[in-house]
């Protein structure tokens, strides 16, 4: 069983930056693909970025390409999401997930709020 705890959310201005962290405990975090999702009010949860266990294969939603960077440090059992050039439409609850299954992920964090003011 893997527990995931997100941190680093908060309030940012348009054009600003935030870095989210996802700390894992228990299980084999280093073997799992890790992803960041986000959910804005009234919308479905949406994949933002994912990183392979080897940290060599990353994927991004088109809306964040060139602005967000996903990474991981397997020595610290932690994944990160560096968010630059933030826009008001980036406002959402951001969730960390690990262990990709066929259509979802097995483990989820509780989420951290990111609010970008215009």
Short description:
The chain has 118 residues and is an all-beta fold.
Class computed from helices, strands and strand pairing: mainly beta
Give the count of helical stretches.
0
Q: Could you tell me the mean pLDDT? A: 95
* Run of helices and strands: EEEEEEEEEEE
Q: What percent strand? A: over 45%
Largest sheet: 7 strands, mixed
Shape: globular
Report, as a whole number of angstroms, the end-to-end distance: 40 Å
What does this structure look like?
The chain has 118 residues and is an all-beta fold. The chain has no helices and 11 strands. Strands 2, 4, 5, 6, 9, 10 and 11 form a 7-stranded mixed sheet that branches. A hairpin with a 6-residue loop joins strand 4 and strand 5. The chain is globular and about 40 Å long. The termini are far apart. The model has no long low-confidence stretch (mean pLDDT 95).
Question: Could you list some keywords that capture this structure?
Answer:
118 residues; seven-stranded mixed β-sheet; 53% strand; single chain
Topology:
Blueprint (H helix, E strand, L loop, with lengths): L2 E5 L2 E4 L4 E8 L8 E6 L6 E6 L6 E3 L7 E6 L4 E6 L8 E9 L4 E4 L3 E6 L1
Parallel strand pairs: 2-11
Antiparallel strand pairs: 1-3, 3-8, 4-5, 4-9, 5-6, 7-8, 9-10, 9-11
